[in-house]
Write a structure and sequence with these properties.
Order of helices and strands: HHHHHHEEEEHEHEHHHEEEEEEEH
Number of helices: 12
Radius of gyration: 32 Å
Structural class: alpha+beta
CATH topology of the largest domain: Nucleotidyltransferase, domain 5
CATH superfamily of the largest domain: Ribonuclease H-like superfamily/Ribonuclease H
Number of domains: 4
Strand content: 15-25%
Number of strands: 13
Length: 406
């Protein structure tokens, strides 16, 4: 209002409209509008006016809104679809609002119960106790610490369970999976593929919102034929060998921390060399890990192609985690983005979705919503496929053993 008042005062003092409009940064049309409001209502015309429209073209008549609320009170267990249908039968001559409009009215009056989203509760898996190198690797992030340049470092570490060999120790700036992929790929190229990897249930190894708690990193491991082992939440002792290595790593490389990421990585590299080749290990009869470790016989050659010869169609999951099938979109999970899945009709308008050899769930033409099966990625089912059979060739249900939740 102060600017408008100054504008009118200078106009009344005899200044020209065009020059004032240029100075105040407004058009002459706006200037004359302000002058007209002042001439009509005085100073009151210079105040801010409400931008609320005089009427809403699609506003629901209050009588219909009142009836919707009354029906909800009479039938508290009815939802918007049933209330809308009841309105259509009671008042056939009145335009019936959409289901979304009825739901919005109920929500506006506080008559919608909010359901808590179902969250995958991690339970861990059965844990193996292998005695040979590369049968099980352990991976984790050592707790973050601050470098001298005030940035946080998140070391990603990978060890061989049987030999205690430290395969990698990388200084990363975050735990995002995009940074973990290159580390694992470099290790796979150098040492080959393990039979299984044991981690906790945190990101990027698992995802609380992903289907079966999987993450994109875990799906990549499955594609490579690597089994997944998860410790129980709050039980770091189940990965005790790896945690014990973290204690030694902390004592020898973070007190004091490096000045920046390059200096800290140099400390990690020196520690890895000493830990593997010079430091005797009591659990190894005072041998060094390098004396017990041998590279894997399974070379890393990239991802094998997925094929579903016994399914009706092979579909690639979109970047947003959906299956586009017969002009319909079925939400699967974003962790499968870019992966090929098999679609097979099992009954009239019922379809089965399969990833590799694992049946994920069913969907129908009416709801287009995937109903997941029990978790098929438990360790018992991971061993169901012989090593000689390529991934994706069986593509049939595996029901020989009860699945175990990740």
């Amino acid at each position: 209002m102060d600017e408008r008042l100054k504008f009118i005062a200078r106009l009344l003092d005899g200044e020209k409209m065009a020059g004032l409009c240029r100075e105040f940064g407004i058009s002459r049309k706006t200037g004359y509008k302000i002058l007209t409001r002042y001439n009509d209502t005085g100073l009151e015309g210079l105040t801010d006016r409400s931008r609320r429209p005089y009427r809403h073209a699609n506003q629901l008549p209050f009588q219909i809104e009142t009836q919707i609320v009354r029906l909800k009170h009479d039938k508290p267990n009815w939802g918007a679809p049933k209330i809308r249908e009841r309105l259509a039968r009671l008042y056939p001559d009145v335009h019936t609002p959409a289901i979304s409009t009825v739901h919005a009215v109920l929500d506006r009056h506080g008559l919608v119960k909010r359901r808590r989203g179902r969250r995958n509760k991690a339970k861990g898996t059965l844990l193996s106790l292998p005695g040979q190198p590369n049968e099980l690797w352990c991976a984790d992030y050592k707790g973050e610490f601050m470098l001298a340049d005030r940035r946080y470092c998140y070391p990603l570490t990978i060890t061989d369970f049987a030999s205690r060999y430290l395969l990698a120790c990388e200084a990363l700036s975050t735990t995002k999976e995009a940074y973990a992929f290159p580390v694992f790929e470099a290790v796979f190229k150098e040492f080959g593929l393990p039979k299984a990897i044991r981690t906790d249930n945190g990101v990027p190894f698992a995802s609380p919102n992903g289907l079966y708690g999987l993450s994109k990193l875990a799906v990549w491991w499955l594609r490579l034929g690597i089994e997944i082992e998860r410790i129980k939440p709050g039980n770091p002792q189940q990965n005790g060998r790896h945690e014990r290595m973290h204690l030694t790593l902390k004592l020898e490389t973070t007190k004091p921390a490096g000045g920046n990421f390059l200096q800290q990585q140099a400390k990690f590299d020196d520690f890895l060399e000493c830990y593997n080749n010079e430091r005797p290990h009591q659990a190894l009869d005072m041998c060094c890990p390098t004396e017990r470790y041998v590279p894997s016989t399974r070379p890393y050659t990239g991802l094998p192609d997925l094929d579903y010869p016994f399914h009706d169609k092979t579909v690639t999951v979109t970047t947003c985690g959906r299956i586009c099938f017969n002009r319909q979109k079925v939400n699967l999970s974003i962790v499968f983005a870019g992966q090929s899945v098999g679609i097979k009709q099992v009954s009239e308008e019922i379809w089965l979705v399969t990833f590799m050899d694992y049946d994920l769930g069913y969907f129908d033409h009416e709801t287009c919503r995937l109903e997941p099966l029990e978790n098929p990625f438990g360790p018992k089912l991971l061993n169901a496929r012989p090593d000689s059979e390529p991934a994706g060739m069986l593509a049939k249900p595996l029901v020989s053993a009860p699945p175990i939740a990740l």
